[in-house]
Specification:
This protein is of the alpha+beta class and about 280 residues long. The chain contains 7 helices and 19 strands. The protein binds flavin-adenine dinucleotide.
Length: about 280
């Protein structure tokens, strides 16, 4: 049986600290329980660490969390992990074994399942670079997809396009020296701490980069919007690409603020922004 919670506040499970109750909140503790829950509640919302989600103020019916799926193992330079393991944990474990490839993701605060779903990336790397195969559920059956079937592109994957669920994944890493891997991770963390408003709840960069040569944060800053607020949702004063929750922001505040930014960017730069954050 999955662990079950009733009327569980989603604000406790999202990095934005926003979201009303999940009428039923399920935490499967094995892949078998996970599949059972997915079949029983095909319309459930799926939640990893909740670091790329804006959950509605009025809540949702059923949420299935992947955080109980936390087994992983190394086999030479291959790492096989269930969907709910945190990327940071996998980075540290890989570094300890002198395995390189995941350094770019150090500091991305989500699970491996969420990261594969949206092909998370940073500092020149992305999940597509290291994923070898993925075991997934397509709504009817379990399949194993190899890297050439994953349809990865910028912040996109076959899982996002088709609403398929990542169960387990295998990453292919490269033997390297532990010290070198660790120092690369530390350098990346230092850059994050310097540039990102980690002292406030957020979901990271709110918008996708619309083109390689268009920097959303810079454009928002040029419009003088740093610090602009709707309720307690604010354009970060440190990094204008982030919307932060400076108190008790609601999902409605965040959406209204994002809409204003979108309209102004369209008007001044003729560029259409799309959210990177998954708005439920
Ligand atoms: C401070 C901060 C910094 C960040 N920096 C970065 C960054 O540098 N680069 C970057 O790409 N992102 C970044 N993010 C965003 C976020 O951490 C990543 O997108 C992360 O991969 C999301 O993982 P998650 O487990 O939190 O997913 P969640 O937020 O729980 O879910 C996100 C989406 O993935 C779906 N999902 C979750 N698990 C699965 C699964 N097993 N199968 C199918 N779908 C699933 C959910 O249904 C939802 O639609 C940042 C966020 C924060 C708060």
């Amino acid at each position: 049986m999955c662990r079950q919670f009733f009327n569980e506040p989603l604000s406790l499970h999202t990095s934005f600290k926003i979201g009303g109750p999940a009428r039923l909140f399920l935490v499967p503790e094995s892949l078998e329980q996970f599949l059972c829950a997915l079949k029983l509640f095909p319309d459930a919302k799926l939640l990893g660490k909740g670091t790329n989600v804006l959950a509605p103020d009025e809540g949702v019916d059923v949420v299935i969390s992947t955080l109980g799926l936390n087994n992983f193992r190394f086999d030479g330079n291959l790492l096989v992990s269930e969907a709910g393991v945190l990327l940071s944990k996998l980075c540290v474990e890989s570094a300890q074994r002198g395995l390189s490839g995941l350094e770019f993701s150090y500091g991305i605060p989500g699970t491996i399942g969420g990261a594969i779903f949206m092909n998370a990336g940073a500092y020149g790397g992305q999940m597509a670079d290291v994923v070898e195969w993925v075991e997934c559920f397509d709504g009817e059956r379990v399949r194993v997809l190899h890297r050439d079937q994953l349809e990865f592109s910028y912040r996109n994957s076959v899982f996002k396009k088709r609403n398929w669920v990542v169960l387990r994944a295998c990453l292919s890493l490269t033997k390297s020296d532990a010290e070198g891997v660790r120092s690369k991770m530390e350098e990346i963390m230092r850059r994050r701490l310097e540039t990102q408003p980690l002292e406030f709840p957020s979901a990271g960069s709110f918008f996708k980069r619309p083109r390689n040569d268009f920097y959303v944060g810079k454009a928002i800053e040029q419009l003088g919007l740093k610090g602009y607020r709707v309720g307690d949702a604010q354009i970060s004063t440190k990094h204008a690409g982030f919307i932060v929750n400076v108190g008790s922001a609601t999902a409605k505040d965040v959406i209204a603020l994002a809409q204003t930014v979108k309209e102004l960017i369209e008007k001044h730069f003729d560029v259409a922004l799309e959210p990177e954050v998954d708005i439920w």
